[in-house]
Write a structure and sequence with these properties.
With 251 residues, the chain is of the alpha/beta class. Helix content is 37%, strand content 17%. The protein contains nine helices and nine strands. The strands form two sheets. The protein has a seven-stranded mixed sheet with strand order 5-6-2-1-3-8-9, sandwiched between helices. The protein has a two-stranded antiparallel sheet with strand order 4-7.
Length: 251
């Protein structure tokens, strides 16, 4: 059976929308039973971990025949919290031709650093990650916040994401890869800068969900929150948008 790896952040994952078995990766598995779908989406993940996750899945399951990458906000970075090889093995489960991570987060010995403003107001999970990072680096939270406030606004993450885009295409081949962005920069302004609005995009970049569902503000109305993450209805719309591209990629 041919294999497709799908990499993204919480937008691709089913947890925030509480739609297990109905997210667009799961729908692809249902509609293409001759393909095994490996869902490598990770809530809160950064673009600079995309190739790492693909390589790890390849180590576990073999070389993929196709790949879908949902790129996320530019202002995130992955920081390793160990000197060991990363990532370590995940806790995966398989239902028919769909393999996914059972845990609340993929078991990376790392944290994803995002916008640093108002750390005390961030989620309990995020605050715990900051504490982990502080312990590992032996730096105070205020020092880390000052550094990442600068770092996340530097050009480094633009360059890193561009390298990830080019690297994935070079290793796996443009004809075997679909790439897209969830939202345009205009939705959340500077805080959530999106790759599609700032980088040099390859020919296999198919656009953004925000643009595809822009009519009548459908992009936001389908959200279960202000991110927007999607539930069953939203993931179905994403699948419908992807379907013509899937037909070319998988048939």
């Amino acid at each position: 059976m041919k294999k497709i790896f799908i990499v993204g952040c919480s937008y691709t994952n089913w947890r925030d929308g509480d739609c297990f078995g109905e997210s667009y990766p799961a729908l692809i598995a249902k509609e293409y039973p001759n393909w095994h779908v490996y869902d490598a989406s990770e809530c809160g993940s950064a673009n600079d971990s995309v190739y790492l996750r693909l390589r790890h899945f390849e180590k576990l399951y073999g070389t993929p025949d196709a790949i879908i990458v949902q790129w996320t906000h530019l202002k995130r970075t992955t920081v390793a919290l160990t000197n060991d090889d990363i990532p370590r093995d995940f806790n995966h489960a398989t239902v028919r031709n769909y393999t996914f991570c059972e845990q609340s987060d993929i078991d990376f010995p790392s944290v994803t650093v995002g916008p640093t403003s108002f750390i005390p107001n961030q989620s309990v999970r995020r605050q715990e990650q900051w504490k982990q990072l502080s312990t590992y680096t032996m730096l105070r939270l205020v020092t880390l916040a000052k550094f990442y406030s600068w770092f996340l606004n530097s050009r480094t993450l633009f360059w890193n994401t561009q390298k990830e885009i080019d690297l994935v295409n070079a290793v796996y081949g443009k004809g075997n890869v679909l790439m897209y962005d969830w939202q345009e920069v205009s939705h959340h302004g500077d805080l959530h800068q999106s790759p599609g609005s700032r980088l040099t995009l390859p020919s296999n970049w198919i656009g953004s969900v925000a643009d595809a569902l822009a009519k009548d503000n459908k992009f936001m109305q389908l959200g279960v929150d202000d991110a927007p993450h999607y539930g069953v209805d939203g993931h179905l719309e994403v699948y419908k948008w992807l379907e013509p591209h899937l037909n070319k990629l998988l048939t």
